[in-house]
Design a protein that fits this description.
about 350 residues, 9-stranded mixed beta sheet, 11 strands, globular
């Protein structure tokens, strides 16, 4: 029974410096990023979280609303050498895993990972950025279209097999970054997801970390917004007319029409879905209030570290409570790609602003 306040979900930045791909939009592993070069030049070791920190935080969270954890969404979490321990911790504490992975299933392969992950996972988000080999491999450098496509098919087959045995359903999501490079394939990605048996297509507009990808943002000007809206209409039409094999409609999240001024504000009046609800813990224990790029979220303040404070102390601190109340005073929050319409400030499906063209 919940007796103390706290986040319902915690993201642990377990191993952001470990990845086997170089996606062009990635803060740390893009070919345009200097993160790894700078780290090596300064003799800084890879950031890897001590699993004992995760164990302590989960033990301290007993009696709070915590029901789900996410291992690193920067880097590939399945490379983290303590990932199997995280799965055991989920079982021990009766919480679920929410996983974002790049679809390569390193170290163990898709068969072994699926049988370990599915029984404790609420959602497995597989990074996906195209409906064709050319587009996918152009964005997610180092991926192999045929291999990851087969991995998704096999993962879903094992998911369905295990669901029949234990009645636990693990949602599977294709998660993309909305880019000029893949927007023209948005409807085809939805159709591919339906064919594969994916439950949800989810995405976010680009955080343009580098000058080289500024031109890929679908929010950069009115013409880009117009093309994005046309892609949304086509994607919504597929989702509304075609069904999954189980008869259900595929879910679309964050795939909605933009207003003309979305280059300045994605959702005028939109609210933060994270503050007061979720927490992010950096590799060294530093508390972060949201999933904005690290350089951006540091601008929101210093809230302390779980290395020497409890989560409850930070959660109730005057600094964090002030941010929860006044976040829209910050430029980072004003331009955030993650704010949502008031009616959907949770982890459920984002309802589109409009479905018809007037």
């Amino acid at each position: 029974m919940e007796t103390r306040p706290g986040p319902w979900r915690i993201t642990f930045d377990t191993n952001p410096d470990d990845c086997n791909l170089s996606c062009i939009m990635c803060e740390d592993h893009s070919p345009y990023s200097t993160t790894q070069q700078d780290r090596i030049a300064h003799g800084i070791p890879r950031r890897r979280m001590d699993v004992d920190l995760i164990k302590r935080i989960l033990s301290e969270a007993k009696g709070t609303p915590l029901r789900e954890i996410i291992p690193s969404t920067m880097g590939e979490p399945l490379i983290y050498k303590h990932f199997e321990e995280i799965l055991e911790l989920c079982q021990h504490h009766h919480i679920q895993l929410n996983l974002t992975t790049n679809g390569t299933f390193p170290r163990k392969g898709v068969e072994a990972w699926a049988r370990l992950i599915v029984p404790v996972a609420s959602d497995v988000k597989i990074s996906w950025n195209g409906a064709s080999k050319t587009t996918q491999e152009k964005i997610m450098l180092g991926t192999q279209w045929e291999k990851v496509l087969n991995n998704v098919q096999r993962f879903i087959a094992i998911r369905d097999e295990l669901f029949q045995l234990n009645d636990h359903y693990c949602q599977v999501t294709l998660q993309l970054t909305f880019l000029e490079t893949n927007a023209h394939e948005l409807a085809d990605i939805v159709e591919l997801g339906i064919q594969l048996g994916v439950d949800r297509i989810k995405g976010h507009h680009l955080w343009a970390h580098f000058d080289e990808i500024q031109s890929l943002s679908m929010r950069r000007n009115k013409e880009a917004i117009r093309r994005w809206n046309q892609a949304v209409i086509q994607a919504q039409a597929i989702a509304n007319t075609k069904r999954l094999a189980n008869g259900k409609a595929i879910k679309l999240e964050n795939i909605y029409l933009l207003e003309d001024n979305a280059d300045q504000d994605l959702i005028p009046g939109g609210e933060c879905p994270f503050l007061g609800k979720e927490a992010w813990i950096a590799t060294d224990g530093r508390f972060s209030p949201c999933c904005a790029p690290d350089k951006e979220r540091r601008k929101l303040g210093d809230f302390g570290s779980l290395a020497n404070k409890t989560l409850a102390e930070i959660w109730h601190s005057p600094e964090y409570q002030a941010l929860c109340k006044n976040y829209m005073h910050h430029q980072v929050c004003q331009g955030c790609n993650m704010r949502k319409a008031v009616s959907s400030v949770d982890d459920s499906v984002q309802k589109p602003l409009a479905l018809e063209v007037l």
